[in-house]
Amino acid sequence: MEEFKVKQIKNLFYVDLNQLVKESKEEGFRFLERLVNDYKKGTNNFNKPGESLYGVFNKEGVLIAIGRLNIDPFSNQQKIGRLRRFYVTRDYRRNGLGRLLLKKIICDAKNYYKVLVLHTDTEQADKFYTSFGFLKENRYPKSTHCLNL
């Protein structure tokens, strides 16, 4: 795993997301396109306390995975974080990079939140998140999984 680095992305305009966005759209996911559009519009710049965007980069500096941590906009409870826009490119799946990225996000989330929630509608993602201890429950608005931190 030494050839891969998890880095916090401070400015989305300095990162080439084109391949990830293209690939995710081909798979029927539009959430990375929304990530870029929200950032351009300024509606979500992950710049509030407890919010951040992370990327996994290969040794050539190419972004191969991404994930975002936000204050949960759907909950009226404090200390609820939401994992969003989590994506690993096809060529790098099933080799631990998603786990590496999620571990970093969970570690940082513990500094701000008591609970981390997310929404997914794929069986593969469900298995991935439950392997980390997420419970498949819709206890929180617009979420399918939650993890007590």
From TrEMBL:
Residues of the N-acetyltransferase domain: 7-149
Organism whose genome encodes this protein: Solibacillus palustris
The organism's place on the tree of life at top rank: Bacteria
Xref: CDD domains: NAT_SF
Signal sequence, renumbered to the chain: none
One Pfam family cited in the UniProt record for this chain: Acetyltransf_1
Protein name listed in UniProt: GNAT family N-acetyltransferase
